[in-house]
Amino acid sequence: MSGTTSFATSPATATFGDGQQEVTVHSAISSTAFLEVRGSFYIQLTTATLPFTPLVSPKSPRIGSPLSVTVSVTPTVGNEAIGFTVSQATVPEPDRGQTSTAVLLISRKGAAGKATVNWIILQPLAGSLFDVNTDVLSRTGVVTLEDGVFSANLSIGIAPDNEPELDEQFLVTLVSVDEGPPQAIDVSKNLGFVTILENDNPGGVFSFSDASRGPFYIMESTFAFVTLFVQRTGGGLVQRELLYSIDGAWSRRT
Fold first, then answer.
1. Do 134 and 157 meet the contact criterion of CB atoms below 8 Å apart?
2. How far is the C-alpha of 17 from the C-alpha of 13, rounded, in Å?
3. 88 pLDDT higher than 80
4. Rounded Cα gap, residues 115 and 149, in angstroms
5. Which of 50, 110, 114, 185 is least surrounded by Cβ atoms within 10 Å, i.e. has the fewest?
């Protein structure tokens, strides 16, 4: 048995045991082979031999008809499954009155026929800051791969808000394929991951309070404490460590 195109394996052997009338033959397709829809390749029987060397040359076994079978490339095999080739995106949350877009990429190895891919954003895990109802413009959508097109962008609109928030993450999954020849979702490449960067100053702005801006007067040669107050405005979602320094300015009177 031998493959006659680059799509099939190298020559292989099928062994029949005593009394065995049929053997199942598996011809693997190379994972790197590009299968053109409506193309074909064939598997051919080449020789039949005994597992030992007889004293007299036998008239059997021998090859009969048919000698070969043709395997056609169907759209399902040729296009292969559809999945993410760029599955992660990071995008800033837009300012109020604007939008931004997270872009992922889906693809297939073949391009026969039109395929409409349906996607949906999954519900966030408990404790997540992401809100599927307000943080994105749409929770569901479609991406269309036209006939002859191998890949397309999956674009998700990000909505603005005025709430101080840390980074938010969400998952988008490919769920089904409509139209065109039979095609499927690659379940090993059906999840995309999007991060919306922190915005609206979730850590806050730090400054001295009005009462702590001085000036302060301390009598020389005395020991005293000066109490200053630092205030945070604009956010309090995360713990921050504030660094400060003390610079002294001395003068001598004569």
1. no
2. 13
3. yes
4. 9
5. 50
Predicted pLDDT at 1: 30
**Distance from C-alpha of 108 to C-alpha of 189, rounded to nearest angstrom:** 11
Instruction: Of 49, 45, 39, give the one whose Cα is nearest residue 27.
Output: 45
pLDDT surpassing 60 at residue 150: yes
Specify burial of residue 192 (Cβ count, 10 A radius: 0-12, 13-18, 19+): buried
Beta bridge partners of 193: 88, 171
* φ, ψ (nearest 5 deg) of residue 79: -80, -30
CA torsion through residues 182, 186, 187, 193, sign: negative
Helix residue spans in the chain (DSSP H): 75-79
Contact by Cβ (8 Å): 121, 104:
no
Own/partner long-range contacts of 216-225 (Cβ < 8 Å, ≥24 apart): none
Amino acid at 76: T
Distance (Å, whole) CA 129 – CA 127? 6
Compute the radius of gyration of the chain from its Cα atoms: 35
pLDDT of residue 144: 93
Whether the model clears a pTM of 0.85, i.e. scores above it, the answer is: no
pLDDT band of 170, cuts 50, 70, 90: very high
